[in-house]
Write a structure and sequence with these properties.
Elements: H1 3-6, E1 21-22, E2 44-45, H2 52-69, H3 77-87, H4 98-104, H5 111-123, H6 127-132, H7 134-137, H8 147-162, H9 166-169, H10 183-190, H11 193-199, H12 206-216, E3 227-230, H13 237-248, E4 257-261, H14 265-277, E5 284-287, H15 299-344
């Protein structure tokens, strides 16, 4: 089986642009408002910076403020996974701000279910990438979540949306939603300075990766089985710049092999989600290994893990289909049996 046949191509619903929202403070409830219907919260205009990279930095700063001011704790994978799930959403055509307003009116306990459905939806087409991002969403499956953490997740969700996250990530056109790497400034901002120094984690600025892409990628950058590899992929910023450059040259990122690897699990998880958001195609893979220790930088290991993930997905889908078919058969038998009993009576 070739890499082309390994994965299903991601499907993208269409989505219109909506005005950039802004942070709106909620007024405290009145003392006699217990029996009154809760006022609907709506997203408001936000004066977003013209530079998408500055916009993504602003989102990261506001999300971090919301997380720590709500006493969310030290698990940085939770706010990362919250924003990561939202970046996977596409605004359906004709809804404008309806999706944002609907999410803003969800209660804290309703958010984990939303995030699980988002991740599961993308797991159907790219189980390998969603598995790679397990660190960002395994907390949502906790049957007994911490109430304080849920309130912090709720604050992060509202802050990200009201700072205009969907204006960067919800477009149907992958070129428009690849203007910036939203997860990179959030990951580096949440990491403690000493932790970053110990890990040697320094993400390349987007202005540098954009310059490198313009220097390296031209109209002749192509051909059968052309591969783009990044042994220290981080959150995938170099991939974003390369994909944008390809699209500017009327080239399709789906025609290329992409392989990114990082030794840090959280960075690899962010790169996996960005691979979906930026629509790098069915031949894009993200590994988590020591590129120096392995002869091929972990490429063979990553492909094997992707095949296993797809096989497991197919097995689960076959089992689910069999269960659905059995329930339909039993329902039909019940209908036929009840009809005969009524006739005999």
């Amino acid at each position: 089986m070739s890499d082309d046949d390994l994965l299903l191509p991601p499907s993208e619903p269409t989505a219109p642009e909506r005005p950039a929202p802004a942070w709106a403070k909620k007024s405290p409830p009145k003392s006699k408002a217990a029996n009154r219907p809760k006022p609907k919260i709506t997203a408001q205009r936000y004066s977003a910076p013209n530079d998408p990279h500055q916009h993504s930095q602003k989102i990261a700063e506001n999300v971090m403020d919301a997380w720590y001011q709500s006493f969310g704790g030290s698990s940085i994978d939770v706010p990362l996974g919250t924003v990561g799930a939202l970046t996977l959403l596409r605004t359906p055509e004709g809804t404008n701000a309806d999706l944002a307003n609907w999410i803003l009116n969800l209660q804290p306990r309703e958010l984990p279910q939303l995030f699980k459905e988002i991740y599961l939806g993308h797991w159907l087409s790219r189980p390998d990438l969603i598995n790679r991002a397990i660190r960002l969403h395994d907390w949502a499956w906790n049957p007994n979540p911490d109430e304080q953490q849920l309130r912090a997740v709720h604050a992060v969700t509202n802050k990200a949306i009201n700072t205009g996250l969907f204006d960067l990530t919800s477009h149907a056109d992958p070129y428009m939603r690849s203007d910036a790497d939203v997860l990179s400034p959030l990951l580096t901002g949440l990491r403690h300075k000493s932790d970053k120094k110990w890990r040697g984690e320094y993400h390349t600025p987007p202005c540098v990766t954009d310059l490198m892409a313009r220097m390296l990628v031209d109209t002749d950058f192509g051909g059968p089985d052309k591969a783009i590899r990044e042994p220290a992929v981080g959150s995938g910023t170099m991939f974003r710049s390369a994909a944008q450059r390809l699209r500017e040259l009327q080239l399709d990122p789906h025609d290329y092999h992409w392989y990114g690897n990082d030794i840090d699990a959280l960075s690899a998880a962010c790169a996996a989600l960005n691979t979906i958001t930026w629509d790098l195609g069915p031949r894009a893979f993200i590994g988590c290994a020591d590129s120096i220790a392995l002869e091929d930088g972990g490429h063979a290991k990553t492909l094997a893990e992707a095949r296993d993930a797809c096989a497991q997905r197919d097995q689960y889908m076959e089992t689910a289909s069999a269960i659905v078919a059995s329930r339909r058969a039993f329902a039909l038998i019940d209908q036929l049996t009840s009809g005969k009993e009524n006739t005999a009576a």
